[in-house]
């Protein structure tokens, strides 16, 4: 990728988004993600050692006096969640005047930052060539730069089978799994969803497409080259063929959404040309992710 993903513009937008996201939270919602476990905000559950960037208002000073270490108090409904983000790093993602790859990385970065700010743990996973490359588990805002370094160290090349790649990831506990992809993949997307559901994951599927895929402006004789397999096809682009393509794309999206909904998950699609603010405060908010 030639485009600088995490530039000064990204950091300015990230700061603005994080401030606005905090303002949208209800009073008293500071702290970890609420679980379905019974309990109230005064029902103590456990301690966790303080990490730089955590909310200092939740420090237990009595514990500090006894152990000379900083600890946070956790409550029954504030158990931290484990967020796994799976990012499709196949060659087809590195496409478009506004790169799908750049958008996928920025979305991953924003979700990571918001989760770390919410006291959740985050694990990043790059999917490529039927494999999964997994980061360490990040916790606390101080680990955000390490997460970005992991994302920047990857490349977008080759092809991928999402199901084959994701099933290589051993998910040992309940959590939230986000898959960011164009979903132009070999193998079954239903298999991905069923595997994540079997592993007791809250499923979030985000499809990133570029404008050339959402509204192709082609006509006449063209030669199409598959960026992953390098297979070539000569076609005559007609209005009828473009309508068939649009119907096929809508069918793919409708099928993924229905399958995700069947297992309690959500699916939505975005354009790589969309602003980050629109994605977070319209798309994410609409699906209850914020």
From TrEMBL:
Pfam families: DUF58 (PF01882). Residues 46-249 form the DUF58 domain. This is DUF58 domain-containing protein. It comes from Ruminiclostridium cellobioparum subsp. termitidis CT1112.
